[in-house]
């Protein structure tokens, strides 16, 4: 039972809204440009997906999202944000995730997994369970980072990574990508944003190393490029690879949109197909001015400088009109929504109706009509 692509024009001969114009990425064709952004759910045990994840992610396939991205899946136990994080560090994680990808595909959907390592922001409580570091007696662990600076005084103090640690984590990302293929995912996204490990290496505020992984831009970008290279080497070339970045730290002396644009051009040559442009998360001293579409200018800047790289915008994109305008302005090729999809898993179908497109409905929901 499939859910057809939403590609019916609003009227005979009318121009299709860009939000419902398919996008081809290698062998995949996304039926629309509405993407479910990765959202941590803190609902796993030992990294395993369960019935919650099946229902949570499956509802977006029934709702017609163009692509569903899972929450961050840790590439190693130490890479979890919290003890309840999803994981892809062991073969036992493959089958439960495969149940989810099978369900999504059965209803015509596409799904990707975000691979992550939390670095110095690991071993912390889930938002509704507490704040700061989880102690060893409650299941916490030693965290690692580019240096020994903690994210905050309430967070764990990391151990500075050695060159061997860097090689090990790089191999962990590649191994997780292999498992992602076995689990049936259509897309892999490497998480290099929001103050987690790969972002920590990028930012001079978190990376004070003096070796080949610290100092000038080229050195700070080295770890991420090595990880992307390792993932691309094992991830099938006919399937797209995404990377999520924070375009700015929102803090003086931190990672900037200029460096993010420079990085984008390097990632394009490493076989990255889509850059998922977010911001922030690196320092507790960040000063963010949030509001509707507040991160879209960062995506637009990178899209303008690296036009042959697909870019995805995210950040308080809430209405169909806003999403369509982002695409019409050429600021991005895809729009990613998080809280908006939490509030309305069928947002894509509502957006189709508002933009004058016949919504795609699974057979079992067809009698609802519009």
TrEMBL record:
InterPro entries referenced in this protein's UniProt entry, alphabetically: Aldolase_TIM, OxRdtase_FMN_N, YqjM-like
Cofactor(s) the record lists: FMN
Superkingdom in the source lineage: Bacteria
Key word Oxidoreductase present: yes
Keyword list, A-Z: Flavoprotein, FMN, NADP, Oxidoreductase
NADH:flavin oxidoreductase/NADH oxidase N-terminal domain residues: 19-355
Residue stretches spanning the membrane: none
One Gene Ontology molecular-function label: NADPH dehydrogenase activity
CDD domains named in the record: OYE_YqiM_FMN
Pfam families xref list: Oxidored_FMN
Protein name per the record: 2,4-dienoyl-CoA reductase
Species: Deinococcus hopiensis KR-140
Lineage, uppermost ranks: Bacteria, Thermotogati, Deinococcota, Deinococci, Deinococcales
């Amino acid at each position: 039972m499939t859910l057809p692509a939403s590609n019916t024009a609003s009227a005979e001969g009318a121009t299709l809204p860009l939000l419902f114009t398919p996008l081809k990425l290698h062998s995949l064709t996304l039926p629309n440009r509405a993407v479910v952004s990765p959202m941590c759910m803190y609902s796993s045990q030992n990294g395993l997906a369960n019935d919650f994840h099946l229902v949570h992610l499956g509802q977006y396939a029934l709702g017609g999202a163009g692509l569903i991205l899972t929450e961050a899946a840790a590439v190693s136990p130490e890479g979890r944000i919290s003890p309840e994080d999803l994981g892809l560090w062991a073969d036992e994680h493959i089958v439960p995730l495969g149940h989810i990808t099978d369900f999504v595909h059965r209803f015509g959907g596409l799904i990707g997994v975000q691979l992550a390592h939390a670095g110095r922001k690991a071993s912390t409580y889930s938002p509704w369970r507490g704040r700061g570091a989880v102690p060893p007696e409650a299941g916490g662990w030693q965290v690692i980072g580019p240096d020994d600076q903690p994210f905050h005084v309430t967070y764990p103090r990391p151990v500075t990574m050695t060159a061997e640690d860097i090689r090990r984590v790089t191999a962990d990302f590649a191994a997780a990508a292999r498992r992602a293929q076995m689990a049936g995912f259509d897309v892999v996204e490497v998480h290099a944003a929001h103050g987690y490990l790969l972002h920590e290496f990028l930012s001079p505020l978190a990376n004070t190393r003096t070796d080949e992984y610290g100092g000038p831009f080229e050195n700070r970008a080295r770890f991420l490029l090595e990880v992307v290279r390792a993932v691309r080497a094992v991830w099938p070339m006919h399937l797209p690879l995404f990377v999520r970045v924070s375009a700015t730290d929102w803090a003086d002396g931190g990672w900037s949109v200029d460096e993010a644009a420079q990085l984008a051009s390097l990632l394009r040559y490493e076989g990255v197909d889509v850059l998922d442009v977010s911001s922030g998360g690196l320092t507790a001293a960040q000063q963010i001015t949030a509001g509707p579409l507040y991160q879209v200018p960062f995506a637009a800047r990178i899209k303008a400088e690296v036009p042959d790289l697909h870019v995805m915008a995210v950040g308080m994109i809430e209405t169909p009109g806003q999403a369509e305008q982002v695409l019409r302005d050429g600021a991005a090729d895809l729009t990613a929504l998080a809280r908006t999809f939490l509030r309305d898993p069928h947002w894509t179908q509502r957006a189709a109706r508002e933009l004058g497109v016949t919504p795609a409905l699974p057979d079992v929901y067809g009698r609802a009509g519009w």
